[in-house]
Amino acid sequence: MDTLFDFIGSIFGYVLYFFNSISGNFGVSIILFTLFTRLLMFPLTIKQQKSMAGMQRLQPKMKELQDKYGNDKARYNEEVQKLYQREGQSPAGGCLPMLIQLPIFYGLYRAICKPLTCTLHLDLSESNEVLYSAISRIKSLSDVYTQASSSFYSQINVIEAVRNIGGDYAKYGFTASESASLEPIYLLSKQFNFLGIDLLSIAKFWNPAIIMTFVVFAASAGGMLLTNKLTGAANQSQMNGCSPNMMGIGMGVMSAWISLSVPSAMALYWTCSSLFAPAQSWVVNKYYNAAILNAKAEAQRLAKIRLEEEQVVSTTYSKKGIKKFAPIYAVTQAAAPEASLEEEVRQEAPAQSKQGGSQNGAKKNSASKKKKGGKGNQSSSEYQGKKKK
Known about the structure:
By secondary structure, the protein is mainly alpha-helical. The protein folds into three domains: 1-120, no CATH class; 122-194, no CATH class; 201-288, no CATH class. It is built from 15 helices and two strands. The chain has helices spanning 2-23, 26-57, 59-69, 73-87, 96-113, 115-119, 129-139, 154-165, 176-189, 210-231, 233-236, 244-259, 264-287, 290-319, 328-388; strands spanning 193-194, 197-198. Strands 1-2 form a two-stranded antiparallel ribbon. A hairpin with a 2-residue loop joins strand 1 (193-194) and strand 2 (197-198). The radius of gyration is 44 Å and the shape is elongated.
């Protein structure tokens, strides 16, 4: 695990070194690093919000399953898993941003506690004879080097000792090559002063770093309270009855307690992270709140249903030999002309039959008239013949 965190710390060290080359101050680099990681995690935060909205949307269905299979826990869990698969939801989908926070915290902690290997990426092994000899000489100077209680902070002690030397290497008997190898460390040591606070120092009651403890408490507690207020009662109801205010105060106390045992640079990171959180929550709840996400999900569901219906219609039309067909959403528009055409055919058929019947009737009438006319002519001639007689 230490190897993994050292690897992450080395990567974060490159990021800090880049920001430090721009700003020239390690405190500003911490602020930029915090903003960078927040922006980097913003897509995951949106995914977390979508997962929470999806779980909220499934609550009525889960309530139905609870009422139906409440007595059979195994069947209930099975049906719930099927519901998750069918709806494409996962109860652990909203945990990813919180899980990533831990590697970021420990990775940055390694980068701050081991700035020589993680930020400057110096080789402190015996293979680098010049630098190894210079650091060994520094550790032997009791008037500038203070042995830390933990070997984990040995690199910080070396940086503080180099800063105490103040660039006067000849005074302590360093060779020219050793002085040149210590110069990057000396330049970095001057960049840890942020608003009068040494970011490498650990908060004590007799040094200015204690201010960061109170700042961390205010930022952490206030940031969580403001975040809870912005997220609204819907998210607060998922806290299993725990008061958001108590959680905010508890988080502030825990943050302040941790800041008493780590370099002040970590307290600055925690402060910036706590202050950026409400702004991020405001953006997420403004543009990715549950109502908007559920509306989009419903629209996607209807679009999926419509696409499936179009595929069914397409298959049906293809079987009937109709190669081209209108989409399902245009069926209502196309149905009217087709219906009117069929109606015209139906209307024309009786008209034609009626017209045909009238024509047949006319033919019959003319035929009957001819018949009658013939008979009439015959009777008239017979009458005239009788009259002559």
